[in-house]
Amino acid sequence: MDTSIIDKLKEIVDTNLISFHMPGHKLGKVYDKLGYSDILKNIYKMDTTEIDGTDNLHSPDGIIKKSQERASKVFKSKHTYYLVNGSTCGIQGAIMASCLPKDKIIVNRDCHQSVINSCILGDIEPVYIRPKINIQTNIIEGIERQDVIDTIDNNLDAKAILVTYPTYYGKTYDLKKICDYAHEKNMVVIVDEAHGSHLGLSDKLPKTALEQGADIVIQSTHKTLPSFTQSSMIHIQGNRVDIDKIGQILRIIESSSPSYVLMSSLDLAVDIYESKGELLMNELLLNIDIFTNDMKDNEFIDVFNEDDKTKIFISTKKMGITGYELEKILRQKYNVQVELANYYGVLLICTIGNEIEDFNIIKKALNDISKNFHSEKTIETIQYPMSIPLKVLSPREAFYKPKKRVKIYESIGKICGEYVIPYPPGISLLSPGEIITKEIIDYILLCNEKGMNVSGIKDSSLQFIEIVVD
């Protein structure tokens, strides 16, 4: 039997990989722990379609409607939709329901690529807010409230504002004051809370976007709660949003054959969240506290986990190795997989699916690595590009313009015809319609040489890039 995908996935399961990456169920460990194994062992038999009794996601009046209403109650929204095309379709639905073609939307520059894609689909004009970057770690730390206020004041004709909260790395900011100010200017507030579906489980975590006044919140339930990859939710509250219009757009952009396996996993995640979530989160936060306190004894490792404490960034600078090197060592020698690596360290995503043994294993691994792989070499400083490129065409205009491929350094000063996206986390450094700068080209080539992956660009070797033919 030639089943290369299945064979590799089975190998990962059989090796009992230690997961500090998404999805949040951590290779199903949380289901085993809570006694859901008997239900899930027959999950393949639940793969069905719209037949008598199964309801219809796009016009629910039965079991799906009941489950969504429970989710709405649990997450404290006015209305909740289940999503089977990931948070991407939720972001698309939120933006296109809030803005008409040619409208403006204010977004944080470090938004997910799906935001720019939504602007292409809806013919909407993005206006960017500059993000904060930690120059010691290259961690994106969110946005400054005053930068948001200034951007709103300079674009009072914008119909909506979309911000990412928390960031991929767990950083937060004063979202409530941003929501209040945007509402004063009659703007809808959309929050990409893809990495924050768990925040409501403890008052030791930052407040949720809904609690702080957001009108539309999109959550990747699969990232930090125990549902299957690609299953997400969109929550709506207040009277600024046309709920029916969001539903209409979701019917256009989402699969007409929604997966009942994915919807079942959302149903299960809601049940776990409501019945056992707080207890499991308290256990997780205790385990994280023990881990971070113990790591203070290691002089070669710095641990960052401010704000959302379930996101832990391990800095490798004092060890004299890059984050890319640490990621490889952890996987190959200790069977531990992190969420991502950058030049300065690695990110751990911890969820209620993680157990104390996971932390014991990675703690031992990090202590061993700091002794056996410690180097005297200095990790050079790589400056993250701080300037937002000049936008001369809207994303939609650039998308449909003719393009040609040129050598990458010959593209400087030209209009970019494709995305340049370090991945993960999927944040665009260059988007279609923006002027290509030497700063960005130098950065991606250097980081790619050190181990960073770059997506969006067709030539994965980074020798060529597409530019708009003017």
From TrEMBL:
Orn/Lys/Arg decarboxylase C-terminal domain location, by residue?
Answer: 388-456
Which molecular-function annotation in GO is an example for this chain?
Answer: transaminase activity
Which Pfam families would you find in this protein's record? Answer: OKR_DC_1, OKR_DC_1_C
UniProt-listed InterPro entries: Orn/Lys/Arg_deCO2ase_major_dom (IPR000310), Orn_Lys_Arg_decarboxylase-I (IPR052357), Prn/Lys/Arg_de-COase_C (IPR008286), Prn/Lys/Arg_de-COase_C_sf (IPR036633), PyrdxlP-dep_Trfase (IPR015424), PyrdxlP-dep_Trfase_major (IPR015421)
Ordered alphabetically, the record's keywords are: Aminotransferase, Decarboxylase, Lyase, Pyridoxal phosphate, Transferase
Q: Does the keyword Lyase apply?
A: yes
Q: Which cofactor does it need?
A: pyridoxal 5'-phosphate
Q: Residue limits of the Orn/Lys/Arg decarboxylases family 1 pyridoxal-P attachment site domain?
A: 6-307
Query: Which PANTHER family does the annotation name?
Result: ARGININE DECARBOXYLASE (PTHR43277)
Q: Which family does it belong to?
A: Belongs to the Orn/Lys/Arg decarboxylase class-I family.
Record-given protein name: Aminotransferase class I/II-fold pyridoxal phosphate-dependent enzyme
Q: Which organism is it from?
A: Romboutsia sedimentorum
According to the entry, what is the taxonomic lineage of the organism?
Bacteria, Bacillati, Bacillota, Clostridia, Peptostreptococcales
